[in-house]
Specification:
By secondary structure, this protein is an alpha+beta fold. It has 12 helices and 20 strands. Strand 17, helix 11 and strand 18 form a beta-alpha-beta unit.
């Protein structure tokens, strides 16, 4: 199996077997050359994905392809492609140290944002585990599954029909008469039973059965078998795509992250993969979502506690407004519901103020003076009006040579200012899993939040004095 690491927005180039030996990749993480047979195999797998209606991962050209804004792992027979985020516009070095640091940063972002089946618990240790990205994510999933299942397997009341010796639940009269006309002591009933065969438990077992058939380190197979042993009372059932998700509540919400990850494992499996075959699968994350959820989780942990009176609502939860309304009276319907990525409120002597930050995993060009796209500016203009806030920021990853800027949003009457849209950046090139890396990022984000509310640091404090604990 050839394992290749490439950066998002990088290139995979088709090379002649004779020129490159036919069994190795060459180049840097930004430009990888693949043997022709493996390149063609990847192209066929991508075509099959698109035929199933799934999003394209690569943009194909004549003799190369461009990686889209995705990170994760994609495997076809003989080839596993690991895609890592690109946080620097400079040419990426080919040394293993750079790849390891970038992989650790991605693990930190996935785990802290809850996309890697773990949210907060054991973060410092998990982000530093060795192995490929796929194996690290599977390890995190199995560790969390073992932790939760040892606390107790998910159970729920499920409807069951059976022919009983005592009346229980609801008597199904037509079936009772058909079955028990000669057995007066039997009752065909539908009744509820407390069972471990819940949608959550079934999905976890299906995902672990799938992992048990993959080529994984021995330690992961041991953990996988331990999870399956804890789910031994859950009946075997073939995995099906696009099953409806269960309703999560206080009793089962602890399984929500690992259920979502199990669903990713199942739905990333190629439709024609069979047990014992060399597997084709994908485990991929949209970097827009990774960036948004990581920044939201980081702000909640490291920044909001330092700003007195501030609250954070990711995806504007509980504060979603609509731009339009259709109809009148009881039949009216809200249209175009707004959900800013990060909505902040600040309660103070002057009342409540609102700040909005929208994260964008894009690269702004210094040729256009860091001007956001028209769509982004239209979006932020709507936020300023609908949420009646004075400041809103577009938050991008750092780009060399591009500076912050502010744009005044104008009202109908020329010269009347509605609010300000700011362009701000965060530098993700630090080692985010370390104390110093977290401190550096927290400094940047706290500065942006305080600027949005027009606040200064508390007297006697400096940003350098901030802690960087996990």
């Amino acid at each position: 199996m050839l394992r290749v690491t490439v950066l998002e927005r990088g290139r995979l180039i088709r090379a002649d077997d004779t020129a490159d030996g036919g069994s190795h990749e060459t180049g840097t993480p930004s430009r990888r050359r693949l043997p022709a047979d493996l390149y063609d195999r990847l192209l066929r797998a991508e075509s099959a994905r698109e035929e199933r209606g799934e999003s394209a991962i690569f943009s194909w050209r004549r003799n190369y392809c461009l990686v889209g804004p995705w990170v994760g792992v994609m495997q076809v027979p003989g080839l596993q492609v690991e895609i890592l985020p690109k946080t620097d516009e400079r040419e990426a070095p080919a040394d293993e140290g750079f790849v390891k640091d970038t992989r650790c940063n991605l693990m930190e972002m996935l785990l802290r944002g809850g996309l890697g089946a773990v949210r907060a618990r054991g973060l410092a240790d998990l982000s530093l585990k060795r192995g490929t990205l796929h194996d690290q994510l599977v390890d995190a999933f199995l560790d969390r599954a073992l932790y939760e299942l040892r606390r107790g397997v998910d159970r729920g009341y499920l409807a069951e029909e059976s022919n009983l010796g005592t009346l229980r639940g609801k008597l199904l009269l037509s079936r009772h008469v058909a079955r028990n006309s000669a057995q007066k002591h039997r009752f065909y009933c539908r009744h509820d039973v407390l069972s471990e065969a819940t949608p959550i438990s079934r999905r976890l077992k299906q995902a672990c059965r799938l992992l048990a058939g993959r080529t994984l380190p021995a330690a992961l197979h041991v953990k996988c078998n331990q999870v399956l042993a804890l789910l031994d009372n859950v009946p075997e059932q073939s995995a099906r795509l696009h099953e409806p998700d269960p309703v999560f509540n206080r009793q089962n919400e602890r399984f929500e992250d690992i259920y979502a990850f199990a669903r990713m494992l199942i739905e990333g499996q190629a439709a024609d993969a069979r047990a014992g075959d060399v597997e084709t699968f994908s485990l991929l994350f949209d970097m827009d979502q990774v960036f948004e959820r990581y920044i939201a989780a980081f702000l909640a942990t490291h920044v909001i506690p330092r700003v007195a009176g501030a609250s954070l609502f990711p995806q504007a939860k509980g504060h979603r407004f609509s731009l339009y309304r259709d109809g009148d009276g009881a039949g009216r319907e809200d249209v175009l519901r707004l959900a800013p990525d990060l909505l902040f409120t600040l309660d103070g002597p002057g009342g409540r103020r609102t700040l909005i930050i929208d994260t964008k995993w894009k690269r702004l060009s210094d040729k256009h003076a860091a001007r956001p796209s028209n769509d982004d500016l239209y979006q932020l203009y709507a936020y300023l009006h609908r949420y009646d806030c004075d400041r809103a920021f577009l938050l991008y990853p750092h780009t060399d040579g591009v500076s912050t800027r502010d744009l005044d949003a104008l009202a109908r009457h020329a010269g009347t200012r509605v609010g300000t849209v700011g362009v701000r950046f965060v530098d993700l090139r630090h080692r985010l899993w370390t104390s110093s890396g977290r401190t550096a990022l927290a400094q940047q984000l706290e500065t942006i939040v305080r600027e949005g509310f027009g606040l200064h640091l508390p007297e006697g404090e400096t940003l350098a004095s901030m802690g960087g604990g996990s």
